[in-house]
Amino acid sequence: MSTTLLSIDHLTMRFGGLTAVNDLSFAVRKGEITALIGPNGAGKTTVFNCITGFYKPTEGMMTLRHANGRDFLLERMPDHEINWKAKVARTFQNIRLFSGMTVLENLLVAQHNPLMVASGFSILGIFGVKSFKAKEKEAVEHAVYWLEKAGLMDRADDPAGDLPYGDQRRLEIARAMCTRPTLLCLDEPAAGLNPKESADLNALLMTIRKDHDTSILLIEHDMSVVMKISDHIVVLDYGVKISDGTPDFVKNDPKVIAAYLGVEDDESLEAIR
Amino acid sequence: MEVFVQQLINGLTLGSIYGLIAIGYTMVFGIIGMVNFAHGDVFMVGSFIALILFMVATSFLGLPVVAALVVVLVLAMALTGLWNWTIERVAYRPLRGSFRLAPLISAIGMSIFLSNLIQVLQGPRNKPLPPMLPGSIQIMGQDATAVAISYKQITIMVVTIVLLALFWWVVQKTPLGRAQRACEQDAKMAALLGINVDRTISITFVMGAALAAVAGVMYLMYYGVVNFSDGFVPGVKAFTAAVLGGIGSLPGAVLGGLLIGLIETMWSAYFTIDYKDVAAFSILAIALIFLPSGILGRPDVEKV
Amino acid sequence: MAESQNGAPKGAVDLGAAIKDSLIATLVMFGLSVPILALRTDQNMENRLILEPRWHYVWIACALVFVGRLLLTLFVWNKGAKIVTKKAATPSDLANAIRPYLGRIGLILIIAYPMVALSITGPQGSIKWIDNFGIQILIYIMLGWGLNIVVGLAGLLDLGYVAFYAVGAYSYAIIATNVIPATIPSLGFWSFWICLPISGLLAAFWGVLLGFPVLRLRGDYLAIVTLAFGEIIRLILINWIAFSNGYAGISSIPRPSFFGIPFNASDVGFAARFGIEFSPIHRTIFLYYVILALALLTAFVTLKLRRLPVGRAWEALREDEIACRSLGINTVSTKLTAFAIGAMFGGFAGCFFAARQGFISPESFVFLESAQILAIVVLGGMGSLIGVVISSIALVGGIEILRELDFLKQVFGPNFDPAQFRMLIFGSAMVVMMLWKPRGLVSKREPTIFLKERKSISGSFVKEGHG
Question: With CB atoms 3.0 to 4.6 Å apart as the test, which of C6, C168, C216, C243 could cross-link to C347 if both were Cys?
Fold first, then answer.
């Protein structure tokens, strides 16, 4: 069951003199939810940016293996190909929606590449070719599927910037899912959500895990979410991995407790306990 | 060798003028993140104010040239400052915090307005002045290959250095300068800490314009002629200088100005004068593409 | 020249404060007008500068500022809020009723325009109205629509758009005056129609060439580099005399034919073939419909592309480039297509311009043109086709109207030349319109697709792009 989907080997990222991530290795297994946790400034988002191609790592290898056995070396690919070819999608810590476009348009932009091919790179599309119309209809249906899953059907024709915060979070996830990813990277999806919105989010994540062939890697500070939904937790501190295992194992790891005590974050500590 | 030294002197003179204008761009960009497109025309307005005041001082009041220059310099700085203050109040302040393109279009409109206003008020023809401060010091070589530095050039460089030192002191050591740097970092936070952001921005515009006026006086003195359309090209070159040096950095603006001045004169001397502006614009493009944060600027890390 | 409306007391009118405020404004005006307005420099017989005092203008200006500022403070800024809320309701109902038909009504008016002008002013009088107003405005509408793809949709700030206009114009001029006569002279009458696509393609090629190095730049930097490219192309046209004939420009460029039939008085000319009396107005009307067709082609392609993935990618790029990259959009090719297609329409317009003028020189492709086209796009409202039409009519038509104000000479004396105030008014109009509507006349965005109901998107959500 648990074959490796993404393996990170000896990943190091330096910015000038600052080493944000130092010799980090871990694996994301297929079909699981893997959580990346750690105190603020531990380098979690940097790891995400390396995986999704926004940063080129200083050293290290990131290998993504598809079900058909094809390998992708993410550190060698430009960011848009990491999404389009290697099928890695992501969300952002500070939500990045196309706020002046409607919710539906957001989900169609996410299907840009297949639609681009179908429109004959716009040339056939200008003449309104039938095959493109059919493909576009399919894309709208796919978008509607995710709108329903995210509970956003009523807002489909509203500008994304007009949605409440919790809806925006779920829309961003739905948009990422519209690219049909094998790995979905979520950067603090529960940040700033109220309990109701948090529950909606959990439900969405569980649906993704249950019904789709998509594994999830997430960064999260909210320990109640992390402990409830993840299968596997990697703990980072100052760019170094300090613990790696099941939620139960990590919860009782003295190194983790020390790291959280070190920053005197009582709330996090309580949550871990 | 002689040609080189002579061009070096000419280039540094020209570069001083560009540097003075560039500071206005860099200060305004630093504090409100806007390219003040009309700054080149503010420089031109300053030059015209200086022209008229100089004529008043010499022909009506009969002041000697040196005294006239001092008076003109001070008055032109004050009046050009007033112009830029008004421009900021009328055309930019109401647009602060609005759509990003709006102030840019407003500034372009202001640039068109200013040059045409001067055309209407002062006429479209070139305005020549009899040469001021004639004479020069020969520093090397003789006769045909002599290298000379004129009194004008000395004046320009000295005035530039003195004023730069003064402004550097203001920005680095005074409460006003501290307020400016605070607004540059985070205007909202500065306002919360009791800094009058609007006033600080106004003063920045006034300071930029004052330096542009100095450049205007120097330009008038150096070339002895000014025209209503003289704002655009020096303006773009000064902006190039500001970017080349690293926009937001005062020493960078001066360094960039000197570099652009040198490149322009050297290009004219060794290649062809026809393409000197092409050279300047190409350098702007190349500098921005390969060195977007400039020589002395802070690199801008893309935040994801 | 009054300052902005700070310090205007709301509610109760404080006359003393208002007078004090107006006095300060007057003082500022006085400072501004000394010495620029008070003394005019002029050359005397020996070509030396003399000063001509005209202090009366200063007093007039100061008095105007004082009175204006006082009246504004007391009567307008005081109850500004009330007036705005009252006004808002009625015109929007009317506008909503007309809106669905606006495009069609406008199109019919534009198609009928030359005929109307012809019937009202006759063949002689109508040339001015069709050429100076109709064709001129349509050229700018087309340029505005072309630049709209780059600036309005993709959010890439391009201040050197005139470069592509120049590439199109010079492509046609050089091919039609040198290449075609030297190689296949028999094609002479067809040269416009052959060169039109070539000009567009060459401009698109230059769009890619100039677009490629500047892709990494954002915002104002992109604007300045594109400005530099525009200037470089113009300076090369000035200096490379063997290629472009420098300042002197290229003249006797072949005029467009009626698909091979020339507009002249000869036996094979348009008038003779169609059995009507020869008149220069035929060509003018034909040119009008050519540029109308070209402009409509631009609009048609833009509308189509907006509903295609590439158009949505452009708008997404304007909204958030980083999100685009995370969704697998190749931002390099997306930006380049925007540059190329925008440049192509600029090239078409340039080709038409050269054919219409019969003469081109670098003077026609100065930065001011780029600024004017950009102003049309931004004033119209980014991304809005109708907005571009309205602002082109207002700006270009407005400038042309100023040429017609000869009667002002009777008011201000024969030395008064209204033409010299054209650009002055144009510049201040740009500022005023930005202050009045920073997001342009039509700031709403129409969605490209909808599920249940088409809802316009308020301009406050739409972003303006980073690059």
Answer: C168
